[in-house]
Design goal:
Blueprint: H1 9-16, H2 34-46, E1 53-54, H3 68-82, E2 87-89, E3 94-95, E4 121-123, H4 128-141, E5 145-148, E6 167-170, E7 178-182, E8 187-190, H5 196-205, E9 211-212, H6 223-228, H7 240-243, E10 244-250, E11 256-258, E12 292-299, E13 301-302, E14 307-314, H8 319-332, E15 341-344, H9 346-350, H10 368-375, E16 385-392, H11 395-409, E17 416-417, H12 428-436, H13 466-480
Parallel strand pairs: 4-6, 5-6
Antiparallel strand pairs: 1-3, 2-4, 7-8, 8-12, 9-13, 10-11, 10-12, 14-16, 14-17, 15-16
Pfam families: FAD_binding_4 (PF01565)
InterPro entries: Cytok_DH_C_sf, FAD-bd_PCMH, FAD-bd_PCMH-like_sf, FAD-bd_PCMH_sub1, FAD-bd_PCMH_sub2, FAD-linked_Oxase-like_C, Oxid_FAD_bind_N
Protein name: FAD-binding PCMH-type domain-containing protein
């Protein structure tokens, strides 16, 4: 693997430093994953060809319609209210960092002008009352604000404000407490700066072996932030928004509203029951800018009595249509108990963490014969599609589910179930198993090394089957006739 030739001294220094741990920083990596994080960080920096940081062209990035004098006056007022250390002007180089040391002032994976989504300053509130102060201040001075929990939703722009020059309200740095874990009801109450790593480690440290958390592919993001963006995990509790129970929200007026049982005066059952009384309005604050959520209850998962992961491979590109028809009824009936994970085999090669240039130096798309050559070296063998899944419950229950899954998947000619006993411990398969068993990991970053300066841009396609829909329309017309 070739080293980058364009690093600045600042970038080189960053590359040599250990990632922060949870004991050092609320947003850090658990000690158990420190070795893996070191390796991932080294690969990220080795595979960079761009500058690790960029000097600023326009400092600071002021919001439209706000003069430098008006901005300075407003910022000084906010510093008086929050404290000088808790309001920081964004006048430094744009350091992109990486997943565990991400920026909170710009998009590390910008697609266009590097300064399009740059903030003017960052405010760090320490409690809900200070969030109210910031909202009222923004209303007074007509300065746009952009709240973040931890800013690690990197597939959708991270902490970058959509409106250039906004003041980022970084909730995570000073509001990062697990306020409650209820052993009887399997719930917890968290602030925005609690990551999946932090929540998992807290549950383990307290010895709650009967309690699982549900985690997404990477564990460094905010539990609250991921839930509000309707993120998903991989256990049967993977619908995080569906598992939330009660919010505390600062409205655009500066008022505070609580949903669920947290709205009841003197309530001691905040996160136990999501509905309380009357209309349910939680959805207003999901994927929206109608308020800043400062606390959230969420349901945890009882230990199901065990988990057993499986992997099936399918040989042909055209198997995809049949696979979708097999997966859909199994998922609807909850025989497949977690999010369907059907991946193209090229990702299995990329998940090794090495750049594409290690396998192919030509132009254009990597040839499939090269991919197949590498697949033959892996436990999956030569194939086109790979399905990952996990069965839950005591052994006799898992056995019944797995037999049904095996029967259905093997309706695809050439389908193979891979014996987990033949899969090495460092395989991507076992990272998927950990995540699907409620244990946050870091492995998913590996495939970003496929190309120099690797990143991802997420999109959510909705496929309309035109022929099927046309048939339904025709049948409806016949029925009406």
């Amino acid at each position: 693997m070739s080293k980058s030739s364009g690093h600045s001294s600042l970038g080189s220094e960053n590359a040599l430093q250990d990632p922060p741990t949870l004991s050092e920083r609320y947003s850090g990596i658990p000690e158990r994953l420190l070795g893996k994080a070191r390796g991932v960080k080294a690969l990220v920096y080795q595979n960079q060809t761009k500058e690790a940081h960029r000097e600023r062209l326009r400092v600071p990035a002021l919001p439209d319609g706000i003069s430098p004098a008006a901005f300075d006056k407003a910022i000084q007022e906010l510093r008086t209210q929050l404290g000088d250390d808790h309001v920081v002007i964004n006048d430094q180089p744009l350091i992109d960092g990486w997943y565990m040391e991400h920026p909170n002032a710009h998009d590390a994976f910008n697609l266009f002008d590097t300064e399009d989504t740059v903030s003017s300053a960052t405010a760090y509130p320490g409690n809900t009352a200070e969030v109210q102060v910031i909202v009222l201040w923004a209303n007074k001075h007509l300065i746009p604000i952009c709240p973040i929990s931890m800013g690690r939703n990197l597939g959708y722009g991270g902490a970058a404000p959509r409106v250039r020059g906004s003041v980022v309200v970084d909730l995570g740095k000073r509001m990062n407490q697990i306020l409650d874990i209820n052993l009887d009801d399997y719930t917890c109450l968290v602030e925005p700066g609690v990551s999946f790593y932090a929540l998992y480690e807290a549950v383990q440290e307290r010895g709650y072996k009967h309690m699982w958390i549900d985690v997404p592919d990477l564990g460094g993001g905010s539990v609250l932030g991921n839930t509000l963006d309707r993120g998903v995990g991989y256990t049967p509790y993977g619908d995080h928004w569906g598992m939330h129970s009660g919010l505390e929200v600062v409205l655009p007026t500066g008022e505070v509203v609580r949903t669920g049982m947290g709205a009841m005066p003197g309530s001691t059952t905040w996160q136990n029951f999501p509905y309380a009384f009357g209309p349910l309005h939680d959805g207003l604050f999901s994927q929206s800018n109608f308020g800043i959520v400062t606390k959230m209850g969420i349901t945890l998962m009882p230990n199901p009595g065990g988990s057993e992961s499986y992997m099936y491979t399918f040989p042909k590109e055209e198997d995809l249509a049949q696979l979708c028809e097999i997966v859909r009824p199994l998922r609807i009936s909850n025989v497949l108990e977690n999010v369907a994970q059907l991946k193209h085999a090229i990702q299995e090669v990329a998940a090794m963490g090495f750049p594409r240039s290690d396998y192919y130096q030509g132009e254009g798309t990597i040839p499939m014969d090269v991919v197949r050559r590498e697949l033959r070296k892996l436990p999956c063998g030569e194939c086109t599609w790979i399905y990952y899944g996990t069965a839950y419950g005591p052994e006799h229950i898992r056995k019944s589910k797995l037999a049904m899954i095996d029967s259905e998947f093997k309706k695809v000619p050439g389908a193979r179930g891979i014996d987990p006993a033949t899969i090495p411990e460092n395989s991507y398969f076992w990272a998927r198993h950990r995540v699907a068993s409620g244990v946050p990991d870091l492995h998913e970053l590996a495939w970003l090394n496929w190309l120099p300066n690797g990143a991802h841009v997420f999109f959510s396609p909705h496929v309309l089957l035109e022929q099927q829909c046309s048939g339904q329309t025709e049948r409806e017309a016949q029925r009406r006739a």
